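Researcher: Quick one. two chains, 576 residues in total.
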Amino acid sequence: MAVIEVEDLTRTYRSRSGVVRRRTTTVEALRGISFAIERGELFGLLGPNGAGKTTTIKILTTLLLPTSGTARVAGFSPASEAREVRRRIGFVFGGDRGLYDRLSALDNLRYFADLYRVPRSVKRARIAELLELVGLTGRERERVETYSRGMRQRLHIARGLLHDPEILFLDEPTIGLDPVGARELRDTISALRAGGKTILLTTHYMYEADALCDRIAVIAGGKIVAAGTPADLKRVVADRTIIEVETFGADDAAFDRLRALRGVTGVAVETRDQAQVVLVQSATGAELVQEIVRELDGSTLGRVITREPTLEDAYVELVRET
Amino acid sequence: MTRAFLSGMRIHVLQFTKNAFDVSGVVLWPILYASIAYYVLGAKNDPKLLLAASLGAAVMAMWSIVVIGSSGALEHQRWQGTLELLVAAPVPFAVTLAPITIASGIVGGYSLLATLAWGTLIFDVPLAIDDPLAFAIAVPACIVTIGMLGLITAATFVVYRAAFSLGVSMQYPVWIATGLLVPLSVLPDYVGPISWFLGPTWGFRAIRESALGGTPWPDIGMCLLVSGVYLVVASACLHLFEKLARSRATLRLS
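Model:
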């Protein structure tokens, strides 16, 4: 049974500037998206910056009104039955904000517990349990402004779970965390999923989505361009091989020459420290390594790896097509 | 909801008192206003007039602290990303917002004590309260009515991002229209009826009448009546403005 249903949702932002000559700028953040999330499912929403992920979450968490279309969360409309929706959801937005910095973690949790109507009889035990879950036991009396980013993020998770919501919205929860902190948070999310929570997760990290999500929707330019299990999405590029070449000092002309090679279906370039990592997609079986090395002649080459496509390759391909 | 309200007051008083800059303003304003009142009126050598002026200065400071404190608090909530959490809480928005203005009012209550103490210790203003019981009730009634007027203004701060500037600009009109800055008798006739709709008018009268002798109870009653009306108006405004903020996406600065 679907606990979140989104049907043809659109959202347009209008901003005005200028005093004498008023100019209106219109941005279509969502252009008619539809999806459904089953009870107990961990659903990932992936997309580049400005794709519409946060707008979608804000509409579903009652913080924004849609321009058109409908949404149901736990059977209620976030637009017209906000209070009913708010009782049943928790949300965690990534980043440093969303906490009372001058106060302790304990004061923050006590306040939000009262705000979210956690019964007095269970409040203390619930806070202790959540502090334990997110690994902040013993640090709860310190001011939040002294916390690291990872600690704040974990406190956000505890806050979002205070009223034991059946649905959890996590908007880029691991953004800015160090690898150990991000891994711990992913473990926490997995545990919540195992505990039966329905979770909508947005993230930029493909390995995170691959490891955690039951199903994924890729959103780009305000539209859903693909949806399915991580395995379904990987099939988009299953007929391809990825050749990853580390180069130093290659220019755009060299990348254009790679794109023109027979059998090449796509070329992407990532910068990692001083190196450029060229990702060349080709039809499976095409022997292109020698030709690629020849076209990059003149720049210093590092590692050359041939590998199977990942979810990230599928994502890049899907987003590139739009 | 009562628990959410009381917890909100506690958290906002705590939040307010943990910033040295905010606290220094609250400490200095009443002393400054009381000193000005003394120097303006001191030469008349009328103890009752001096006490009345001190009380007026205290209520002025109370209003300043409420309107600037709550607008500053709301702007701060935007910056720190907690405004969205307050809006998204499953309780009426007024229950999450009223504690901010009432908490400012309670902090503003300090201004009354500071003004009276300053006037007594430094300027020998006589501290003789005519009806202590009425005074003890008039002070919280004044705090509530000022807090509720602050709630209406805070509702507009939810929609408009320049909350603090708006808050600062609202100090003076209320000071003038309620007769706190200058007596209403020297202002144009049309200001009188305007003052009837403003809680600080009744709050100040209730405090003054109970301190100097008079009939404070009708003024205390008016404080409560006006507060009730403010609560209804503020709730309606908040419902409307919350919807507007969700429509315009103005709950966050970034």
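Chain B has one domain: 2-248.
Researcher: Thanks, that's what I needed.
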